[in-house]
Amino acid sequence: MAETHDKGPSYMAIFWYLAILTVVELAVIFLPIAKLLIGIMLVALALSKAALVALYFMHLRFEARTLGYIALTPVLIGALLVFVLLPDHQYMYHRTADSKKIEAPKH
Amino acid sequence: MAEAALHHPAVEPAESPLTPESWGKLGMWIFLAGDAVGFGVLLASYGAARAGSADWPNPAQRLGIQLTALMTFLLICSSVTMVKALEAIKRSDRPGTQRFLLLTILGGVMFLGLQAYEWTHLIEGGLKIFGNPWGSTLFGTSFFIITGFHGLHVTGGVIYLSVVLAAVSRIPDMRYNYMIAEIAGLYWHFVDLVWIMVFTFVYLL
Fold first, then answer.
1. What pLDDT sits at residue A90?
2. Can you name the CATH fold of B22-204?
3. Is B59 exposed, middle or buried (0-12, 13-18, 19+ CB in 10 A)?
4. Which of residues 41-70 of A touch B (CB under 8 A)?
């Protein structure tokens, strides 16, 4: 166990990465760019932080491959869930857009 | 399993081919995968509710992010003290292990205290589970359900780590102690990981 852990960066290095990424996240939301772009950056930052915690604090990088597959299962299901719910987003967008269009002439 | 152990005397009956360390670790990973799906469902439905709402309030403005950024930092720190506790067990340093486990528990308790403070503050400001003055009702509902579900996990983690601290202080076999502390650590880091996601999706986005 001890030998394998020495290959990766130290726990303190991971701590500083996480702290810096959190500060970057806080800075990103004030950037004067498109909201969608900020969203994509925030999700990317969060996923990389989560990966750092799983790979190093939870030792996933140094474990048997089976544990990696187990850990990837919820990620896959999560991605699937987002796609399953996407049509709902579209539907609701159109509905709200339409209802606004109908209401507009009354005013 | 017993037969396999007979044929391979080096493999103890408690060891599994999936994870050479212990069945407990495998069990914890399977539990965490299921728990992660639970949080995934909550966050995905949060996204659907928010995308379908025409009057979703701006979370960063209404919830405040300074305090939550501090809470995030606190959980990351408690993850570090958890791995330090594991390192101490590996050195067979019992007082060090107890100190770092205690610091980890303290981090969790402080997190819960700050969350209680935050909730009180927000509820006094008008954010309720059945409505709020700024827009979509689901804004408050999803906020309390998601952060509440996570808070319950932190509460469970504090109790879990306290039990591990008691065991480590009492049981002389440091190899066994390492095993139970490592499995508890997996749970604790998972709670930290989930907060990273919650912080991003519920507060920042």
1. 61
2. Four Helix Bundle (Hemerythrin (Met), subunit A) (1.20.120)
3. middle
4. 42-43, 45-46, 49-50, 53-54, 57-58, 63-64, 66-67, 70
